[in-house]
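Lab meeting prep.
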Amino acid sequence: MLLDTTFVIDVQRETLRGARAGAYRFLADHLDLPMRISVITYGELAEGFAPEARDDFQELVRPYQIIALTSDMAWRFGELSRLLRSEGKRLGDNDLWIAAAALEMGVPLVTRDGMHFERVPGLSVVTY
């Protein structure tokens, strides 16, 4: 599974509150599956951490395999961008990169923003 940035943010918030809610329940129910984030999500998360908090950032992303972008993902990004723009359903670039990565990997995208990503044809979206 590929985790959207919102998922990892929710894990972080649940940890800080000491309240294991939707994101933690999802992880507990899927312990047998590899959990991955794209390098795009990695960058979006890094934006929220000051340089002196890099250790905290590393701890947050440690459980997840980081997926680098490939040329096939870039091609899929371009195809999706063109299609969604022509249909008036454009996503932000970062979300489009994440969706393209999930499609190329052939894995579901886990997000709380299901309706946002459902406009991407062929993308399997899992909400929590």
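Slide two material, second protein:
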Amino acid sequence: MNAETQKLLSDIAKCVGCKIEFKDGKPTRVFSDEFKSFHFLNFNQPDSELIFDALQKIGLVALKRRGRQPFDFPWYLNRPYEWEFAGETAYKSRRIMKQKLNLEWCSNLWALCAYALLPCRATFVNFLSRHPEKIKLMPLVIYGNWKTRFVKCCRKVFRVFFPKLS
């Protein structure tokens, strides 16, 4: 793994509130002082896998720091319904979402979004060719990355016209 990728991973970890250790140019563990947790990485795998594993562990720390569920339910799934069919449908939808959209799924999506933004396109393509099941998440990754860029752009424009809002 090159020094630029190591620095990017270290900077991402620092922004989230954790640290990443490197040995012989490969990440070995991600740790957080706040949660007193360690995540060891198997460094006997290709660089594309190592980058994703490191980002996934950093994403786990980021999601735990939020201190809430990884997925907030829409208002229409949380409200009480008088009609029994609608209430049962909302309950089943919440239950399925809790099972499927758990912390691991959210950390995978977080890692894919971060990986797509890293300037190591060849390793990202290599990772996706090894894991074709992750390609199903790419529309969400593209949407999330474009939404983030759009919001940042809007904030910059509004700061010009309304400097007191920042």
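Talking points for slide two:
Residues 3-132 form one domain.
DSSP finds seven helices and three strands in the chain.
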